[in-house]
Design the sequence.
C-alpha cells in the first residue's frame, strides 16, 4: 500500500523542541558502557591477578586453562600460536558479552547512546537511511536466546565459585574451613544480581510461557511466566546493577591479588 | 473532524475557548499570571511558530490555554479535541517537543518562565495548525489479519476462557488510539517508513489479537514482512509517551519479536517442530 505522507521538515541531528537535558541519559550510557568495555577488555587480556586464595574473578569463570591454579583443562594448550595473545577469559567472555550485546534492554540503550538512532525520543537523527533489525548485521540480534542458554549455564559456574569462596585454607595448617569474607559477599551479590538480570530476560519470558496463549491449563508454566515477568519489570535496573557488580568483583580480586587491598574476614 | 472546517464547528470551538477563559479568570481571582505559548501555525505548504500570551491559573491544562488563545487572540487557530478527559485521543500534539495529550498536560508541570511550544504531531501530514491527518493509521488497521476464533467450545456456539488468559491482552485494550506512540516512533517520524512499518500502535493491536486465547490466526510471517516489526529498535519511546501507561515495548513488541524469532530465526526450534510434526 503506497501512502503519500507529507510531513513537516525533518529535524537535523540533535535538533528538538525539548527544553530538558535529553542528552544526559545517552551520555551516561555511553560513558558507562565504554568504560566497562574498555576495562573488561583490558582485564581479559591480562591473564594474571584474576584470582586470590579461594576467590576467582567472574571474568575468568569458568577457568578453562590456567598455569597458576586448578582449571578444567590444565595449562595453556601446547599448540597455541606464540603471536596470538592468550587468556582464558578471552575464551569465555564472548558468551556473557554476547548476552548483553543482544539484550533487548541494552539494544535500545546503546542504539541511542552509540548510534544516535535516535539520540533520544523526538530528537533529530544524523542519518536519513534506516534498516533497523530487519537485515544484516542487526538481524543477528535475534540470536539472543542462544546466548541466554549460555548465560544460564554461567550462573551455575558462578554459583560454584561462590561455594568455593566460602572455604578458606589456613596457611599454617593447610586445613580448609568455612568462612565468609568481603570477597565472598561480593561474589554472592554478583550471582544474585546476574540471576535477577538473567531471569528477567525477555527471551526467557517468552520461552517459559510467553509463546503460549492459554497458560491457565499449565499452572507450573504460568508460575514460571509470572516469576520471569516479575524480574522482567526491573530488567533495566538488574542490567546495570549486575554490570557494576561483575566489574567490581574483578577489581576487588585484582586489588587483593596485587596486595593493594586486604580482604576482611567476617567469619 | 478538523477544526477550521465548518462555521458551526469553529463557533463551538471559540465558545468553548471563551468559557475556558472565563473559568480561568473566575478560579484564578487575582492569582492568575501570564504565560507565553509558541504555537505552530500553518498547513501542508508550510508554517511557523507564533507566540501568544494568555493568563494561566492553577489546574489549567495546555488545551485550556490553547482554547483561551483561540478566544482571545487567534480565532482561526485549528485544534482537534473532544472529551477533555484523556479518553478520546483527539488532542494529541507535541508540547515542549514531547508527544502528549494537550488535555492531560497540566501547566503546573511545565516551566512557564519560558514559552511553552505547542506543535502538531510530526509523524503525520499537517492539515492546519495543530491538526494532523491521521487517516494513514486507519488504513493500516484494515491491513491487519482479523480476529479468527477457534471452533466454539459449547454446542450453543460460545467459548470458555480463563480470566488469567485474557488478563494479558486486557492491557492492550486500554489503547485510546491517540497515536502519540506512532508520533514518537523514529521509524515513522524521522525515517518515514509508513509503507513498510505499521508502528507501535498497531503492533499493540496485533499483540492483542495474537495473544488472545481464542485466536488461532498466525501473523508471524506478516509481522516480519508486511508489518515490518524488524524496524523497531526498542527505543521504548512509545512506552514513555503512552497516556494509558501500556507497556508497549516489553509486553507487546518484544513478545511479538520473539514469536517471529520462533518461526523464522531459530533453527533449533524449527528442528523441534519438524520432529514433532513427524512423530
Sequence:
Amino acid at each position: 500500500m503506497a501512502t503519500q505522507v507529507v510531513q513537516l521538515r525533518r529535524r537535523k541531528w540533535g535538533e528538538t523542541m525539548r527544553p530538558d537535558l535529553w542528552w544526559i541519559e545517552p551520555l551516561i550510557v555511553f560513558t558507562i558502557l565504554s568504560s566497562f568495555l574498555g576495562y573488561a577488555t583490558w582485564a581479559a587480556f591480562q591473564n594474571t591477578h584474576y584470582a586470590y586464595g579461594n576467590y576467582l574473578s567472574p571474568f575468568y569463570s569458568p577457568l578453562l586453562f590456567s598455569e597458576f591454579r586448578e582449571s578444567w583443562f590444565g595449562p595453556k594448550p601446547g599448540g597455541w600460536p606464540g603471536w596470538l595473545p592468550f587468556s582464558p577469559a578471552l575464551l569465555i567472555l564472548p558468551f556473557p558479552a554476547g548476552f548483553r550485546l543482544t539484550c533487548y534492554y541494552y539494544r535500545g540503550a546503546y542504539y541511542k547512546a552509540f548510534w544516535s538512532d535516535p539520540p533520544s525520543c523526538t530528537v533529530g537523527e544524523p542519518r536519513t537511511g534506516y534498516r533497523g533489525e530487519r537485515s544484516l548485521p542487526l538481524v543477528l540480534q535475534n540470536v539472543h536466546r542462544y546466548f541466554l542458554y549460555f548465560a544460564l549455564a554461567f550462573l551455575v559456574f558462578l554459583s560454584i565459585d561462590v561455594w568455593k569462596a566460602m572455604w578458606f585454607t589456613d596457611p599454617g595448617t593447610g586445613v580448609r574451613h568455612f568462612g565468609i569474607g568481603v570477597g565472598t559477599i561480593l561474589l554472592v551479590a554478583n550471582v544474585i544480581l546476574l540471576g535477577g538480570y538473567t531471569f528477567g530476560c525477555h527471551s526467557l519470558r517468552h520461552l517459559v510461557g510467553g509463546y503460549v496463549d492459554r497458560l491457565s491449563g499449565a499452572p507450573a508454566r504460568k508460575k514460571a511466566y509470572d516469576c520471569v515477568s516479575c524480574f522482567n519489570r526491573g530488567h533495566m535496573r538488574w542490567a546495570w546493577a549486575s554490570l557494576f557488580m561483575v566489574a567490581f568483583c574483578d577489581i576487588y580480586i585484582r586489588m587483593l591479588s596485587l596486595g593493594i587491598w586486604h580482604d576482611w574476614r567476617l567469619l | 473532524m478538523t477544526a477550521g472546517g465548518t462555521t458551526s464547528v469553529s463557533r463551538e470551538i471559540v465558545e468553548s475557548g471563551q468559557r475556558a477563559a472565563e473559568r480561568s479568570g473566575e478560579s484564578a481571582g487575582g492569582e492568575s499570571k501570564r504565560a507565553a505559548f509558541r504555537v505552530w501555525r500553518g498547513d501542508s505548504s508550510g508554517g511557523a511558530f507564533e507566540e501568544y500570551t494568555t493568563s494561566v491559573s492553577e489546574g489549567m491544562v495546555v488545551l485550556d490555554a490553547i482554547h483561551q488563545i483561540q478566544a482571545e487572540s487567534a480565532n482561526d487557530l485549528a485544534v482537534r479535541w473532544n472529551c477533555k478527559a484523556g479518553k478520546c485521543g483527539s488532542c494529541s500534539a507535541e508540547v515542549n517537543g514531547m508527544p502528549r495529550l494537550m488535555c492531560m498536560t497540566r501547566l503546573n508541570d511545565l516551566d512557564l518562565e519560558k514559552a511553552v511550544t505547542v506543535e502538531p504531531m510530526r509523524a503525520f501530514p499537517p492539515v492546519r495548525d495543530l491538526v494532523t491527518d491521521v487517516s494513514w493509521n486507519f488504513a493500516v488497521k484494515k491491513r491487519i489479519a482479523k480476529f479468527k476464533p477457534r471452533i466454539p467450545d459449547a454446542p450453543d456456539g460460545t467459548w470458555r476462557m480463563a480470566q488469567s488468559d485474557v488478563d494479558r491482552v486486557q492491557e492492550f485494550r486500554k489503547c485510546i488510539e491517540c497515536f502519540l506512540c506512532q508520533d514518537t516512533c523514529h521509524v515513522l517520524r524521522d525515517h518515514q517508513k509508513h509503507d513498510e512499518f505499521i508502528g507501535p500502535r498497531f503492533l499493540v493491536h496485533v499483540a492483542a489479537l495474537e495473544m488472545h486465547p481464542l485466536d488461532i490466526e498466525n501473523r508471524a510471517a506478516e509481522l516480519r514482512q508486511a508489518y515490518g516489526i524488524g524496524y523497531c529498535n526498542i527505543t521504548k519511546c512509545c512506552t514513555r509517551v503512552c497516556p494509558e501507561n501500556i507497556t508497549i515495548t516489553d509486553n507487546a513488541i518484544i513478545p511479538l519479536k520473539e514469536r517471529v524469532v520462533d518461526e523464522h530465526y531459530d533453527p533449533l526450534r524449527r528442528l523441534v517442530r519438524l520432529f514433532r510434526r513427524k512423530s
